[in-house]
């Protein structure tokens, strides 16, 4: 799976789904949660069933954001959408790794009932949307075979968290995150890497500000995020470009990998007057892996 761009699409909108499928996003996230009014949840579930049945010729990953545990809607969402064609579930408002384990157990049963190969449906988690979530990051380092092997990616969000703690705002006057939400972002990045899964940055809310989005993506990639969420189709091309290694990036990464391969016992290697050690090799391999090499 590619994880550069994950575009949210309201699950009850045929028109938006049709447009989203042609915008180049790596994944579409059909949303059963915040973008669907309470009275439209069942209609949205039926729409997702229809979309899953018809989306056979596609080059994007099919994800669904379900309603959070505790809403009383989670099992109905899962029962409706875990069927052939589904690639993953985005779980909002996760309080900790136990929530992910619980959803994983539900999906175990539903996959079997739907005739889906075991483990096909991956889980993505929004891990910073509740105060409790901010206290449980150490648990993700234990995920793996026998724990939550379905977990594929983690992302973060500030809006629900700031509402939960009563913050007046989560942004500085210049648009930067205030300190508590910088902490949330960093914790997500570290927890994802401790768990061995992909770290995805959150939404950039002003879809008209392409320059701001590009700069935000540059910073996200610099810091270690592999991609990000999108709220509008017009954001996808910018996000994809920013999270795709350039030919210069790839050529340098190949040079680093080749240099270490030629001297397998070396811990430090000089290339064109500059020293490279094992962390540089790891970074180079990640760059090549993000391009499918």
UniProtKB/TrEMBL annotation:
Residues 4-233 form the HpcH/HpaI aldolase/citrate lyase domain. One of its GO terms (biological process) is oxaloacetate metabolic process. Its EC number is 4.1.3.6. The keyword Magnesium applies. Substrate binds at residues 65, 129. Mg(2+) binds at residues 129, 160. It is an enzyme of class 4 (lyase). Keywords: Lyase, Magnesium, Metal-binding. GO terms for molecular function: citrate (pro-3S)-lyase activity; magnesium ion binding. Belongs to the HpcH/HpaI aldolase family. This is HpcH/HpaI aldolase. It comes from Nitrobacter winogradskyi (strain ATCC 25391 / DSM 10237 / CIP 104748 / NCIMB 11846 / Nb-255).
